[in-house]
Design the sequence.
């Protein structure tokens, strides 16, 4: 697919594309306008227009309209969010915000990232292991540092999955079949009797094999076995004592079994892979929807990964938070957390490793004038195995009217090494292998974000933001000059990222919606003081677009993603365009049919860098489809 950078940018923004991200949690003002409410950015309830951050919202309605079968699928439609896969379902989905892979994932405000990490990227979470989409009420995405309340390691931002709360008795089942032996089954059910409520959802997906299109235009099957089966189950049990306080118990389980060929170019025999998560939490909260609300929560996260050896991680934590109304215009948030993380790799650690972290934070939200808000915060983290540090944050918001605001935010970064960085040792002989460094320093730095949201007409919304981050002592696994097969974990680089995001949504009429976005990211690294060089693994120009038609029975979306400026050293092509088409038809109040065609234009492309002789090592699947039906009761 041949297209020019400026032509695509003008085309995308000219059309105002991509199927809107709709309001998810609303409060009605006196004049009847509906305002979006967000919590993640400040951990306090605020209107989006009063939040000094780049926030995107995905509602349960969006998840349904897009036929999303995973959180990763849904995030691909959010402006400025990049989901990177290596072509295979067994190897997970990494999410980048503002060009940054150090992203914090939360489920109902509870941290779910692993402490182990891996030796190839700074990613510490697989988005494919999140709860089933049928259990999700909405998703809040905050781009830019959010250091005070969630931890100074959230360099790129925070993605918070908010699950549904029990209401009236209802349920749904769905089944789908598609290309390459793809089968999907799922259910969700919930209800509330008196003060006791329950919601639960489960999914199963099976894939028999995968095909892709290479840069020569030939359709091929992934070599070896590429089949997998993934199951997920989540539930939430609530017991209210009054309308303002109660207990919430949650359980999240996922299990993936399948085969993982290393790549399609330098092919290694498929290895069997197992990924399992098993997370539980118990929370007591009080004074709900009040200025003096608070909570106390205990949780345990368990992760097991098998591939040529077992890797285990178990984290448990206790955290609490209290909001205090200092005045009608000033609110203070105080919180503390104790977290214990332990990890073991039966092949590559000499023994089980563990560490403790104690953290305390304060954040003040001050409306010092009727349309001005200033947020300031301090956080102290004490990682007993590495270091301790106090970090700060500040953000300023100016509301112009109920549809527009401008903001500036600054956050400090403090991210300790993953356990793999410190302890992973894989000696292949002859000096080759992976060699960890127990003396690594934490990554530190600053993240800045500035933005402006506004309406150019009652039917058109715009978002413009810019960002800059400067990271010192960035940790990378670096190959020796004399031996390209000997990798060492080092504080090897200073990393700078800067860019901007422009997005727009437009409602043509009662049936047609358009929107789109363009994101520019420049990633530069200074490896050991040798001067800044471009990171060749990242596309500087990224576009998202879509068109939506909807009426009482039909909902149809054409969505697309495009990138250019890719390095031919790391990718088979320096640009790509891929589109998905999904449709839903409601027969009656019980039955709905759905269908999705992925990669409609059968593009040859890759999201993860790696190429040999002009061919992508990790190509994305070619055109494929799934059709199915849902029954509500």
Sequence:
């Amino acid at each position: 697919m041949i297209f020019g950078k400026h032509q695509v940018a003008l085309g995308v923004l000219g059309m105002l594309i991509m199927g809107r991200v709709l309001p998810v949690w609303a409060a009605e003002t006196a004049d009847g306008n509906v305002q979006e409410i967000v919590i993640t950015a400040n951990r306090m309830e605020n209107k989006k227009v009063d939040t000094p951050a780049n926030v995107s919202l995905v509602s349960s309605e969006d998840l349904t309209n897009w036929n999303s079968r995973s959180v990763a699928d849904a995030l691909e439609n959010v402006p400025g969010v990049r989901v990177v896969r290596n072509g295979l379902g067994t190897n997970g989905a990494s999410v980048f915000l503002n060009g940054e892979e150090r992203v914090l994932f939360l489920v109902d405000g509870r941290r779910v990232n692993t402490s182990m990490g891996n030796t190839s990227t700074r990613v510490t979470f697989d988005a494919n292991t999140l709860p089933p989409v049928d259990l999700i009420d909405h998703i809040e995405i905050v781009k830019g540092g959010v250091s005070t309340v969630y931890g100074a390691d959230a360099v790129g931002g925070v993605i918070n999955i908010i699950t549904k709360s029990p209401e009236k008795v209802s349920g749904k089942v769905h089944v789908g079949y598609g290309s390459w032996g793809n089968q999907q089954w799922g259910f969700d059910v919930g209800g509330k009797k008196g003060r006791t409520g329950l919601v639960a959802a489960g999914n199963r997906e099976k894939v028999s094999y995968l095909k892709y299109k290479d840069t020569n235009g030939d359709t091929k099957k992934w070599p070896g076995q590429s089949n997998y089966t993934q199951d997920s189950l989540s539930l939430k049990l609530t017991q209210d004592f009054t309308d303002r306080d109660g207990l919430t118990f949650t359980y999240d389980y996922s299990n993936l079994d399948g085969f993982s060929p290393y790549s399609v170019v330098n092919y290694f025999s498929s290895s069997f892979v197992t990924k399992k998560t098993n997370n539980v939490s118990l929370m007591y909260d009080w004074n709900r929807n009040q200025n003096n609300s608070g909570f106390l929560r205990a949780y345990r996260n368990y992760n097991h990964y098998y591939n040529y050896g077992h890797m285990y991680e178990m984290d448990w934590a206790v955290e609490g938070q209290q909001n205090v109304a200092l005045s009608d215009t000033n609110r203070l948030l105080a919180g503390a957390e104790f977290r214990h993380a332990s990890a073991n790799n039966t092949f590559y650690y000499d023994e089980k490793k563990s560490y403790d972290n104690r953290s305390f934070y304060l954040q003040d939200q001050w409306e010092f004038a009727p349309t001005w808000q200033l947020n300031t915060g301090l956080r102290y983290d004490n990682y007993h195995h590495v270091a301790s540090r106090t970090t700060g944050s500040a953000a300023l918001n100016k509301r112009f009217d109920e549809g527009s605001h401008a903001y500036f935010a600054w956050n400090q970064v403090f991210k300790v090494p993953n356990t793999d960085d410190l302890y992973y040792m894989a000696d292949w002989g002859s000096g080759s292998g992976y060699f960890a460094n127990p003396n690594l320093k934490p990554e530190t730095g600053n993240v800045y974000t500035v933005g402006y949201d506004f309406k150019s007409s009652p039917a058109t919304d715009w978002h413009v933001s810019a960002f800059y981050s400067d990271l010192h002592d960035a940790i990378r696994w670096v190959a020796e000059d004399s031996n390209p097969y000997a990798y060492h974990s080092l504080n090897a680089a200073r990393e700078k990222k800067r860019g901007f995001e422009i997005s727009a949504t437009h409602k043509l009429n009662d049936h047609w919606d358009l929107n789109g976005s363009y994101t520019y990211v420049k990633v530069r690294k200074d490896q050991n003081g040798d001067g800044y060089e471009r990171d060749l693994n990242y596309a500087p120009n990224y576009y998202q677009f879509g068109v939506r038609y909807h009426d009482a029975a039909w909902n149809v979306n054409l969505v697309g993603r495009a990138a250019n400026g890719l390095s031919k050293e790391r990718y088979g092509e320096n640009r790509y365009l891929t589109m998905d088409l999904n449709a839903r038809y409601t027969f009656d109040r019980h039955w709905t049919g759905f269908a999705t065609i992925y990669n409609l234009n059968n593009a040859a492309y890759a999201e993860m860098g790696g190429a040999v002789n002009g061919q992508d090592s990790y190509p994305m699947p070619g055109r494929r489809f799934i059709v199915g039906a849902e029954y509500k009761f």
About this structure: The first strand starts at residue 26 and ends at 28. The chain has five helices and 39 strands.
